[in-house]
Structure formats: C-alpha cells, structure tokens
Amino acid sequence: MKRVAVFLSGGGSNMVALLDDMAKGGHAAMPCVVLANSADAGGLARAAERGVPTVAVDQRPFKGDRPAFESAITEALKPYAPDMICLAGFMRILTGGFTDQWRGRMLNIHPSLLPKYKGLHTHARALEAGDTVHGCTVHEVTAELDDGPILGQAQVPVLKDDTAEALAARVLVQEHLLYPAVLRRFAAGDHTPVILQS
Ligand code: GRF
C-alpha cells in the first residue's frame, strides 16, 4: 500500500477528491498526511474531518531560503513515512534539491493542457489566445516548473463569452475526476496517461 502525502495551500478541493477516492477501496494508495505551507489553509480542516493527520510548515520564517523551508518539510514528513507526494493546489515553487529526492514519486495538477500555459493565470491566458479547448494536466514533478512527464489530461471546451472564472470552475470539476484517476493508476504502477474528454 503506497503512503501518499498531499500538499496544499488553499481550500484543498483536489485533496478532498484524492482522499475520497482512496477511501473507496480497491486503491493501491492511502493518505498518510496532508501538509500545508500555512496553518490557516482551509484544506487542513477538511483533511482532519476525514481522519487524516495534518501538519503545517509555515513558510514565513524561511523567507528567501527555499532549501531551509524544504528541510523543514522533510523533517515534518518523517513521522508519516510517505512513499510519494501529491501536490494539490500547493502554491510554492520547490527547488531541484527537493524534487530530485522525490523524482518519479511526486505528482502535481496544473490547470492547463501542458505544455501550454505553464505558470499562473492559465484560464485567462487560454481565453486571451482564443483557444477553443482548455483543461488540466497531472504530471510528474521535476526541477523545471510545470514540466515533467504527463500522466493525464482532461480537455474542457471553451464556450462563447466564457470568463476566466466560469472556465476555471469547469476545469476544476475535471481536475477532481482526473487527479484521482491518475493516482489510482500511478499507485498501481501503471503510468499509462489518463485522457478525459468533457
Ligand atoms: C486548482 O485550480 C489547481 O489546478 C491548482 O490549484 C487550484 C486550487 O486547488 N493547482 P484546490 O481547490 O486547493 O485543490
């Protein structure tokens, strides 16, 4: 049974989707801890409600020293002995020093059809570009931001007069389907990409 640490910064809707799918059974993974980079991340309470241990590693004392922040994360994880990490709305950039330790064992969900629109404001950028299809991607995390082998994608049509908010909401629905499907497959040792069309 693979032990999964889920990292988040905000409300944790992706974390909830992952935990609820792992709770369904027939899954090769189980959540061992949910970690946030601030104690007031809303997702921590939602994880605790589901009986999953939580830990917050506040990034502020480490301002400007990413390796020190990452060492604090590594220390905080030790008691839970994770085999892999799922970044789920974790809004901190991790250095190669950390990503190398977890190479092949750390996933992330990004709200675009990578390699398009790495970074932020992905929905607005897709609208700006006049794209007719947008979506989300789950990928293995490498030292390069929003790069790394793609493990799944969900496509979402862009509608006439779409706003970034409306598009983001439709993409988020697909994120909650894609990420659990990818983790279920990945934890079972199958890296065949999951492709969802909505
Ligand atoms: C989601 O849009 C996800 O694509 C991005 O973080 C956002 C918030 O996710 N990585 P969550 O609701 O906190 O899971």
Identify the CATH architecture of the largest domain: 3-Layer(aba) Sandwich
Tally of extended strands? Answer: 8
Order of helices and strands: EHEHEHEHEHEEHE
Number of spatially distinct domains: 2
Rg: 16 Å
User: CA-to-CA gap between the ends?
Assistant: 31 Å
So what's the overall shape? Answer: globular
Percent helix, as a range, is 25-40%
| Helix count from the secondary structure assignment | 6
CATH class of the largest domain: Alpha Beta
For the biggest β-sheet, the strand order reads 3-2-1-4-5-6-7-8
Tags for this entry?
alpha/beta, binds 5-O-phosphono-beta-D-ribofuranosylamine, Rossmann fold, 2 domains, globular, about 200 residues, about 25% strand
Concise structural overview:
By secondary structure, the protein is an alpha/beta fold.
Structure commentary:
There is one protein chain. The model has no long low-confidence stretch (mean pLDDT 97). Strand 4, helix 4 (96-101) and strand 5 form a beta-alpha-beta unit. This protein starts with a strand and ends with a strand. The longest helix has 24 residues, at 164-187. An 8-stranded mixed sheet has the order 3-2-1-4-5-6-7-8, with helices on both faces. It has 2 domains: 1-102, 3-Layer(aba) Sandwich (Rossmann fold); 109-198, 3-Layer(aba) Sandwich (Rossmann fold). It is built from 6 helices and 8 strands. Helix 1 (13-22) packs parallel to helix 6. The chain has helices spanning 13-22, 42-49, 66-77, 96-101, 122-128, 164-187, and strands at 2-8, 29-36, 54-56, 84-87, 106-110, 133-140, 150-157, 194-197. The chain has 198 residues and is an alpha/beta fold.
